[in-house]
Amino acid sequence: MFDQLFPILGAAVIGLCVGSFLNVVIYRLPKILERDWQTQCAELRGEEIQEQPTYNLAVPRSQCPACGHRIAPRENIPVLSWLALGGKCSACKAPIPARYPIVEILGGLVAAYAIIRFGATAKGIAACGLLWTLLALTCIDFDTQLLPDNLTLPLVWAGLIVNLWGLFVPLATAVIGAVAGYLSLWTIYWLFKLIRGKEGMGFGDFKLLAALGAWLGWQMLPVIVLLSSVVGALVGVGLIVFKGRDHTIPLAFGPFLAIAGAIALFWGPALARLYFPS
């Protein structure tokens, strides 16, 4: 029993630390991309490019957005620091969003459950990487309605690479899954645009479903699309009824695809038999 407990606890602790890093990715990556786009636009306009301070996932050090207080190492311990600080900046007492510890906890929980399901194996470790990336994509898309190529495209290739050894599905199934995942939403996008004259989803959704197809195979695509549609509809109706959200405001679809992909990773075959009995 202790032999099983140690890798599970280890995965949970590592997941907490990875969750802390994911908070940095979620906050900074959209800003990094925005700076890059502004620089590219300025170059196309022939404007002089102003040198800007280095800004990436490592530099500058994390700081309070309200007062600029540099976050000390003791203030950056996953979950515990947020609790010790009472959810407030130690300098200016500005509130620290609860999503920071929530992302850290989710990072630990999904990693622990992946090891429970798949063991401390290459498959379990690969599943952790997939789930952490889906967690980051969910939060970024929820905030910005953006699914960065910096995450979705490596996720496609990672799915194909891990399935070179058939960790989740045979390689041929993974390749077909990637192609079918992309083309299915690409087709829906263009049909919707031709009929309604406007875009119904972003290109990032195509790439995310392609990535899930590459990881889990083409057989899981109907389950993922059905699950994401059901969850998205329930959340959308709930926001309209209980939060008074304007139904004309677009709702990011990426988080629902990511959640459906995580569910399919663990329970996909059972759900496929339930939804599509032979």
What does this structure look like?
This protein has helices spanning 2-44, 80-84, 99-118, 122-144, 149-162, 171-196, 203-216, 221-243, 254-275. The protein is globular, with a radius of gyration of 20 Å. 68% of the residues lie in helices and 0% in strands. The protein has 9 helices and no strands. With 278 residues, the chain is mainly alpha-helical.
Helix content: 55-70%
Please tally the helical runs, counting DSSP H or I stretches of 4 or more residues: 9
How would you classify the helix and strand content by structural class?
A: mainly alpha
SSE string: HHHHHHHHH
Number of E-type strands:
0
What is the distance, rounded to the nearest whole angstrom, between the alpha carbons of the first and last residues? 38 Å
Q: What low-confidence regions span 5 or more consecutive residues with pLDDT below 50?
A: none
Largest sheet: none
Strand proportion, as a percent range, falls in under 5%
- Tell me the overall shape: globular
What does the average pLDDT come to? 89
Alpha carbon gyration radius:
20 Å
